[in-house]
Predict the 3D structure of the following.
Amino acid sequence: MKLYDATSAPNPRRVRIFIAEKGIDVVLEQVNMFAGEHKTPEFLGKNPSGKIPVLELDNGTCIAESVAICRYLEAVHPEPNLMGATAEELGLIEAAGRQLEFELLGPIGAAWRNGPVVAGLLPDLEQIPAAKLQGEAAARVFYRRLNDLLSRDEFLAADRFTIVDITALCVIDFATNLVELRPDDDLSSLWRWHAAVTARPSASA
């Protein structure tokens, strides 16, 4: 299998961590998004959306979208379980993951698209300052929500490390490093969790 990857983006990192947790052997091929390699006819033949990551199977089938890729990998490599071992876990993990994507990654994405890094990379892109402020505010509200949850629980969606913890780690690190949206220092439970999941060998994948 081959994973079309971009090291600076949060979604490919989600898949790399998932792969590392599973111990799966996958070839990584870097796609230079700044050079537009994800918009070439060849790549669009693999994923018409022109987004990274994409998993190409040995038979040539291409699977796009990070969670879809993880679902495939979980099906063919079920252990260690990262997406739910029971019907209840499946529901709780899916719900937590969707909330993270819509209520944290979405606002952070809005702050990113309308922030200084993208302005420097794409000077012709019209930015919306109000969208940046709204995204930042929503992200900070969600950080506190995560902190409250982690003051009671060790992990985000089950009694063990799951794909939800992977998603949250990648989103928070992206926000911290590239969006100037680092969680506040007083969120001690969030930072306790962050230190623990960052210490996992897979986090450096």
